[in-house]
Amino acid sequence: MSFNPLIIGSIQESGAGGVIAYTTSGSPTVNNYTGYTGVKWTGTGTIIVSAAGLVDVLIMGGGGAGGGGAQCGASGGGGAGAAYEITGLLLPVGTHTITVGAGGAGTSTNTMNNGVDSSLAISGGSTYTADGGGAGARLAGTPHTYGVVGNNGGCGGGGSSAWPSIDNAGGTHTGSGVGGSGGYGKRSPSTGHNGGGGGGGAYPSNGGNGNTSNGKGGGGGAGFSSTYPDGVSTYYGGGGGGASTQNMSTGVGSGGTGGGTTAGYAYSSPPANCAANSASGGGASDCQTSGSGGSGFVVIRVAA
Q: What are the residue ranges spanned by the domains of the chain?
């Protein structure tokens, strides 16, 4: 195996391989487009290879949930799942296992729920894993007297902030593939408002910091663009937006391109859950349940 340092988060492998012959299990979606067939799993399955060949692979981990908590305040946005792209991978004869990670569940308690890893396990060989996203940071103390750091993961969750606490960092990217870090939870001394950090995106793109001038929540990082599933350039794995103590729609952080959801505000406007198989991070909550992260996927692209 040889690693190409010019391709960030990707692996290139070479080997003898002609036209691959295979069947599948797990009901993947199959799309034929110019020069390729994209086979996309949104749940556990297998690819059973009867004649070895070269393929391209994209693995996306499940996105992390936004930060919630029993108290209102500036919690952090959830980090997206990592993007792990592999080009020219030789799939040998055998049954190879695909695992798709779930998104972290949104919460109104003091838990912080990461997304779950997705993977491709080669029979008798390597396992390629994209880590699930880190959860956005909750608020802590009664009442919300301090913030905490975001969780590490495929992309880091955003940090939280509560008066008069210090700034709290977002989580960092872990594992293989690519992913951004979460933004800092910050306080605006001039307004007294706090802004949670946005979750990291799979571009890789870091989440935005809470705004120190107005206490607005940080935006989620941008997602990873790929044509592998269906030949159309689409973004996956946007980070979730950070919440704010402003308690108004203008104060919340926006979700990152690729499916990250915008933070909620006050009691009546909770953040949306991320779409299934978007690998994106959930929006942070302010006084309500946080947004759930989107589940991941695995796609194998085969030359037609």
A: 1-304
